[in-house]
């Protein structure tokens, strides 16, 4: 028993809330474009994704080797530095620095936060509460991002740097909350610090010989990709609707509302996830989430109508619905000394698959101007990708060895 670890459980939802106060989320592209041309603003996005990809798995190994608390403190420190860098930036090089620091913060947090929660509960013999506690953390995190997006959109009307000030406050708060936590004792006792980086990768891949674990790995990688399709294409879809919402000086406010409401949808999914998991089981829950993504992408692909925006708002609901229940299936099957590395590897594969999907979709329209025919073509191809994935997931789903 480790009573001191109880503080970790109490603080975890607020760590998620404060970390996700990304007020810049609905305005970052506008901020970049205010300093650099469009091509450079797009290139900054590629720098971020490249850095996250390179640091994703090594940061998970760092967590497994040196501890959850220190890794989360490093992540928070990177977030603090990133937001200071963004606020101080005056040119392309300053924005590059911010992107690199943000990517490192994201990479160091990825996988470690959920491993921190599970290890803390395990040290208290309360691991049976993991799904409920993780769902609560997700609910707090998405609510934080929703509120920050609404606030950031409004602050951006006055100055595009102000949303980064909100994010800086959140990062400092997260650092303070994490500083007051303790390292879960179970992590220190479960082989932590043993094995090289390559050995850890090998051991994680060997875990996929468990058919259930392999299936969940594949489904989560696929769902990550599908969840980003609506986000990637909702702005050009809005432009084609011709509503004029992004005209004049209201751009940041409208963008903040769209992002914020969608995050509230994710928080609702997280709030319902444990109850629905207990009632329906993990397979049915995943099938429902898959079907929702098909409806969302299909609506965007085949219909140009205002009511389809309701589907865009719901884009985070499926992910919120499955995140905690799926991690509750994964965590007991992966040892503490590999857990963050494994989850980081899963996250990395999701990013790579989505990047590959975008590369394929971009190749099918070449340099065509934005039109309903070109956007619909891209989205119909994404819908086909989702439909094939759903069929494969159903066919390959294990019939046994699921806790529920």
SSE layout and pairings?
Elements: H1 6-19, H2 28-35, H3 38-66, H4 68-88, H5 92-109, H6 112-123, H7 130-155, H8 162-179, H9 185-189, H10 197-207, H11 211-241, H12 251-280, H13 282-302, H14 309-313, H15 317-330, H16 336-365, H17 372-396
Helix content: over 70%
C-alpha Rg (nearest Å): 21 Å
Largest sheet: none
Provide the domain count: 1
**Structural class designation:** mainly alpha
Number of helical segments? 17
Strand content: under 5%
What oligomeric state do the depicted chains represent?
single chain
CATH class: Mainly Alpha
Low-confidence stretches: none
The average pLDDT value, as a whole number, equals 87
Number of strands: 0
Give helix and strand order, one letter per element, not per position. Answer: HHHHHHHHHHHHHHHHH
The CATH homologous superfamily: MFS general substrate transporter like domains
CATH topology grouping: Growth Hormone, Chain: A
CATH architecture: Up-down Bundle
Coarse shape: globular
